């Protein structure tokens, strides 16, 4: 397993990122620590979260994931071994959202406090704020870089046009440049990324770190029938996948999995890792068995026949 460079940064990561959206939601603090320990003990070093995680869970207000990660970092004393990223821009309630400079400068202080650190390796725009000029957002990031609070920046959930405008503003005004892109991309959700973002990422050498890499669990093969939907808090929306294309994808995953003696989850992640634009999928796990599937993916070599089978089954 080799480290991969993130865009044009000096950050090198092992090619799976752990997604902290499950912390404080489907995992309590104790179980979160167990999963984080297992992930890092397997050699991985990249942890992704956001200030808004996991505000959607009953009784939560946001920041739960960052607090759990922060406590874990303090306990393990391993901050400098971890490539740590969080995000800004989501709706935190009480009018706290957006990408205006003043808001970003306040939001990062809250994130740093929760994470028990004085700097972030990567700070990402989570959701765009079209009412704020891209230059103002980048100026906020420039201030944070100057103050030593962030090292690099990335983006997620922006239109290609706004990403291009941001890259142009960075070049013209000497402002920090987005180095990473976090898109929704996987074996099932292909069209939007491949049509609108893939060429942009390759042309600008953006490190692509995909979210929903297993389509909320569908690509693990855990959900086979509508009766399986009660297996997880994420199961409620799964019935939309039980169409002809979704079933073809599961069948292809099963065939490749059997041939390679691997799980469908590992195959789905390996498919992403074989795509030239992808640096690292972001994946969550809520059990050690799920984690084992995840950590095997970077060493799974899919041949051309397997890739073609998966491409054909998931074509759009």
TrEMBL record:
Matching Pfam families: Aldo_ket_red
Domain NADP-dependent oxidoreductase: 15-313
Family annotation (Gene3D superfamilies): NADP-dependent oxidoreductase domain (3.20.20.100)
PANTHER family hit by this protein: NADH-SPECIFIC METHYLGLYOXAL REDUCTASE-RELATED, OXIDOREDUCTASE-RELATED
Protein name: Aryl-alcohol dehydrogenase-like predicted oxidoreductase
InterPro entries: AKR_Detox_Biosynth (IPR050523), NAD(P)_OxRdtase_dom_sf (IPR036812), NADP_OxRdtase_dom (IPR023210)
């Amino acid at each position: 397993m080799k480290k991969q460079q993130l865009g044009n940064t000096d950050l090198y990561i092992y090619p799976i990122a752990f997604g902290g959206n499950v912390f404080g939601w489907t995992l309590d603090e104790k179980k979160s620590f167990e999963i984080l320990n297992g992930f890092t003990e397997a050699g991985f070093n990249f942890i992704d979260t956001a200030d808004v995680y996991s505000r959607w869970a009953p009784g939560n207000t946001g920041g739960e994931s960052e607090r759990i990660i922060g406590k874990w970092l303090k306990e393990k004393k391993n901050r400098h071994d971890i490539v740590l990223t969080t995000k800004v821009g989501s709706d935190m309630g009480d009018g706290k959202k957006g990408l205006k400079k003043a808001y970003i400068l306040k939001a990062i202080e809250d994130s740093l406090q929760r994470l028990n650190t004085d700097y972030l390796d990567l700070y990402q725009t989570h959701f765009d704020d079209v009412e704020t000029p891209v230059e103002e957002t980048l100026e906020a990031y420039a201030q944070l870089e100057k103050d030593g609070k962030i090292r690099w920046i990335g983006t997620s959930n922006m239109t290609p046009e706004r990403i291009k405008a941001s890259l142009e503003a960075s070049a013209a005004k000497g402002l920090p440049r987005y180095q990473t892109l976090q898109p929704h991309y996987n074996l099932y959700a292909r069209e939007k990324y491949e049509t609108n973002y893939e060429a942009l990422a390759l042309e600008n050498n953006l490190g692509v770190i995909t979210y929903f890499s297993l389509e909320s669990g569908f690509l693990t093969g855990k959900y086979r029938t509508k009766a399986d939907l009660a297996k997880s808090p994420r199961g409620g929306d799964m019935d939309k996948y039980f169409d002809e294309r979704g079933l073809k994808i599961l069948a292809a995953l099963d065939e490749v999995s059997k041939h390679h003696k691997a799980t469908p989850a590992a195959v789905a992640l390996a498919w992403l890792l074989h795509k030239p634009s992808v640096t690292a999928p972001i994946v969550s796990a809520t059990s050690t068995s799920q984690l084992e599937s995840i950590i095997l993916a970077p060493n799974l070599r899919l041949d051309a026949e397997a890739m073609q089978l998966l491409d054909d089954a998931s074509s759009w």
